Amino acid sequence: MRFTKHLILTIITALAATLAVACTPSPTPDEALVEMYQEALHDAQALTDSAPGASALRTEHADEITAEIERLCGFTDDGVLPESCTFSVPAIAAAPTDDAAAHMMASQEQILGHLEEIPTESVPLIIGHYIDQARLAPPAEEIDIPEGISLKGEDLTRAQDLLAAEYAAAWALGVALAYVSPDLTDATQEAIDRHRGYAAVLRTAIDPFADTAPSEPGYDLTGLTEPTDPDTALALIREVQDNAVTSWHNAASVATDPAWRLLASRVAGSTARDTVAFA
Q: What average pLDDT does this structure show over 201-221?
């Protein structure tokens, strides 16, 4: 049998394709996310009696992490999860905790400790879990600037934008304070003080890398509710707080400097905790 050049090339191409398929490793679950899945399950178990709401939240987080693991691992053209993507964790029950606050704070630190281990595209989800849990955890007494923070490029730009946003947030809440119901006066003033504190942290973080702009005498409420009574004042407060959480979450999600990501995550969580009084 004579082999033409065309036939030989066809055979070589087919063999190469077969070998490529055979040598392609099967997808496997991301190990760091699997570990986080197990930690979420343990949190849910430990908090079942002492903090049922937090327990339910961590169960929900475990389900979302499972979905993320499967999404990253991939599905076949028929929508079936490859067998290599299935996973299980040891069936070890966590002991109940009688100090839910301490447990949740430790859990939050675990979450932050994984941010540099997980896939970049999973970071927004996991920071979202940190923020969710912050709403149920004790408020942070103080936010320290992580060692080695380096603000450059887009990280620096976002930090500067957040500084301006914190100034504006404190000002807007000051406007709302004149109309807010008496039972929310103290919470509103505390929120104002917290935004001023976040601005101070940002100034300290930015200062070694760029000049920091001072607060303006006044800002506007474009896109926000104009307060005229307690109801509209509360609406404005919620908008300001929700916008702040979103802005910090976004900054943390796309941060390139690990220390900046950590700081932005902490402030996002702390701001989320500040919103609880106005829920």
A: 94
